[in-house]
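quick q for whoever's on today - can somebody do inverse folding on this one?? i tried earlier but teh output was garbage lol. tokens:
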């Protein structure tokens, strides 16, 4: 965004893509990875024809291999996220990765990325995170406003699109009139683990059709991307961006102790109210 580009998130979990992917990948790999690989290989989404290049920070070894295969068809830039966050040089290494990425983007788009450009992009994404946290907070009530499936339908992992902001704001303002769980005695469920991407929503459907209420999702399609804003107080906004994403308690991290306290990072009232 700071370079003037439009970020598009390529993410899906269609079961139809799993079997074709096993022609190139081991059958035992994560179905999410196999779905992504076939989407890219067969150009089954329009946006695959648009990007100049693709960028990604890989969280797991299998995805690293997936991006290598995708790189055979499209220019791929892979950010290396440190997997040992307690290492004394880990944060420095991650900041250096982002600086190299900034230089790559400047060269790719023939545009200098200034600190003010970065701050403007930070403000936009912080606004989106705040709106999505407001919606998530509604399900801390004894009678949740939204079903887990509705929350999944509301989310957009990376957007920064003003139309989305308006929709989030409308949902927030009208939320108290839209309660779907009338019975407060329903079992309240915290969903954790891997992302619940498009095509894999059946996990939430199974829980809620059995009478549960998914009131919180602690995964990458839930709270993880939105629980913490990027600070605007640093003289170097790139350092603030590095700090925010370094805090994400991804399951690939060793040790992954950051997960235990990660709701304490926001001042929006979520801390202490989301775990049941």
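ok took a stab at it. sequence:
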């Amino acid at each position: 965004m700071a370079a003037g580009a439009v970020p598009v998130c390529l993410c899906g979990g269609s079961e139809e893509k799993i079997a074709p992917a096993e022609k190139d990948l081991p059958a035992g790999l994560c179905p999410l990875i196999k779905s992504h690989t076939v989407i890219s290989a067969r150009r089954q989404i329009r946006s695959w024809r648009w990007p100049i290049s693709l960028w990604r920070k890989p969280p797991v070894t299998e995805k690293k291999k997936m991006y290598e295969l995708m790189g055979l068809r499209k220019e791929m830039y892979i950010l290396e996220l440190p997997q040992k966050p307690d290492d004394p040089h880990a944060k420095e290494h991650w900041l250096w990765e982002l600086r190299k990425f900034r230089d790559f983007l400047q060269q790719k788009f023939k545009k200098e990325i200034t600190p003010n450009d970065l701050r403007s992009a930070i403000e936009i994404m912080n606004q989106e995170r705040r709106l999505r946290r407001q919606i998530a907070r509604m399900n801390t009530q004894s009678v949740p406003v939204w079903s887990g499936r509705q929350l999944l339908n509301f989310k957009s992992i990376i957007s920064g699109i003003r139309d989305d902001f308006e929709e989030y704001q409308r949902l927030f303002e009208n939320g108290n009139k839209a309660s779907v769980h009338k019975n407060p005695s329903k079992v309240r469920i915290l969903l954790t683990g891997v992302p619940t991407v498009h095509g894999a929503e059946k996990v939430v459907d199974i829980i809620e059709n059995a009478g549960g209420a998914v009131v919180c999702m602690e995964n990458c399609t839930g709270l993880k991307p939105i629980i913490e804003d990027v600070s605007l107080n640093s003289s170097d906004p790139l350092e603030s961006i590095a700090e925010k994403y370094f805090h994400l308690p991804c399951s690939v991290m060793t040790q992954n102790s950051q997960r235990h306290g990660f709701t304490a990072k926001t001042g929006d009232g979520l801390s202490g109210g989301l775990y049941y």
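fwiw The radius of gyration is 19 Å. also Strands lie at 54-56, 76-78, 187-191, 212-217. so keep that in mind when u check it
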